[in-house]
Amino acid sequence: MKVSTKGRYALRIMIDLGEHNTGEYIRLKDISERQGITFKYLEQIMPMLTKAGYVKSYRGNNGGYLLAKRPEDYIVGDILRTTEGSLVPIPCLADMPNQCERNEKCTTLAFWEGLNKVINDYINKYTLADLMEGQDGMYNI
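Given the sequence above, the corresponding structure tokens read:
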């Protein structure tokens, strides 16, 4: 599993929206300046977050974006899966039940399933609020 810039930036955007929430919509330009992410790249990520219902958008002079929910109501794994798609370490784990023709005799399947569980348990353990608080033992995004 490799998280792309899109996934990392999505988390940074969501944290920025949470940290600067005043009840007013936040301009994309302001997020871009604070986060050092190009405006064009933000324009690619925001529709994903909006479509998923994570942010509310408003067009116009006072337009911008707001979190749709409280930071503690967002699971980091959900945000990453929205921008990255499946986070499985090997393709055959994407299908449930496993459709791989070798799954009955695969000696490494249990290992890959265990790795997938560890990944999902970890990313689903944290909320956006946890990232905003900078929990001990967590890495920079």
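The two ends are 16 Å apart (CA to CA). Try to locate this feature in the token string yourself.
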